[in-house]
Amino acid sequence: MLNKPKIIEKWQKINRYGRPQTPLITKKIAIHYTGQADVAGWRTVSYFNNVVANGYKVNGKYVYASSHYVIDLDGTIYQLIPTSEQCYATNSANSYAIAIEVATTGSDNHYTDATYKSMVHLCAWLCQYKGLDCKTDIITHTDVVGKKYKLCPIYMVKNPHKMTQFKNDCANLKAGKITLDKIVNCTVPDYDSNKAISPNPTASPLPKMIRIKKDVNYRNAPNFEDSSIIGVAKPGQVFTVVGLVKRSDTDMYKLKSGCYITTNARYVDGIY
Ligand SMILES: [Zn+2]
């Protein structure tokens, strides 16, 4: 049995624009992209929960939009709507599909390694939980609405063989043929399909220090929950690394100060 991934619950209040409490009987899982590359997924969570849910008009018309899950660039999985209720994401499939909005990166809107791993874990686990088949029941938004209406998620629609690989990864994880730490992101430009079955990828050595590239939270515990944030490290700052915490999503460095910080290369450079 596959373990449930770590999910941060950001329950949306009951409201007519995103969480009308209409019962959902799940038959499919629909993948979406949040629309603009390199925008953090928590912003999408905030848009749904704090803007749309309060009644938000565009061109004089209320926006009706929500998603069961949002996956962030660092692999964090947020849940906004219970899977027993419908959301507003997938047009005519809202009545039977769980929706997952996924943050993307780069000009082609591919996925970070952490995001890809979380997508595979969440989809495989949802298929197990809801009795679905990864190869036939994971769909794209475009599968429902057609290419003329929307390319969503745009990377998967433009690279259908990657969508097939993604579904295979989900099926293999669900079946126990591969473990989560062996999942390889097939959406990166230099993807080598041979690596997908490599039994023992070489672990990278621990850097002596890290240099901050972008504003990033440092924390008093090795997790990505709001409650562990104790400050923001600024670009150019350097910290001494004393350890590594292995996590199911993104690993974290333990710093000499006793704080923890992400290993995500978007935010930190290792100094060896
Ligand atoms: Zn979509």
From TrEMBL:
<dbReference type="InterPro" id="IPR051206">
    <property type="entry name" value="NAMLAA_amidase_2"/>
</dbReference>
<keyword id="KW-0378">Hydrolase</keyword>
<dbReference type="GO" id="GO:0008745">
    <property type="term" value="F:N-acetylmuramoyl-L-alanine amidase activity"/>
</dbReference>
<protein>
    <submittedName>
        <fullName>N-acetylmuramoyl-L-alanine amidase</fullName>
        <ecNumber>3.5.1.28</ecNumber>
    </submittedName>
</protein>
<feature type="domain" description="N-acetylmuramoyl-L-alanine amidase">
    <location>
        <begin position="17"/>
        <end position="154"/>
    </location>
</feature>
<dbReference type="InterPro" id="IPR002502">
    <property type="entry name" value="Amidase_domain"/>
</dbReference>
<dbReference type="Pfam" id="PF01510">
    <property type="entry name" value="Amidase_2"/>
</dbReference>
<dbReference type="InterPro" id="IPR044081">
    <property type="entry name" value="DUF5776"/>
</dbReference>
<dbReference type="Pfam" id="PF19087">
    <property type="entry name" value="DUF5776"/>
</dbReference>
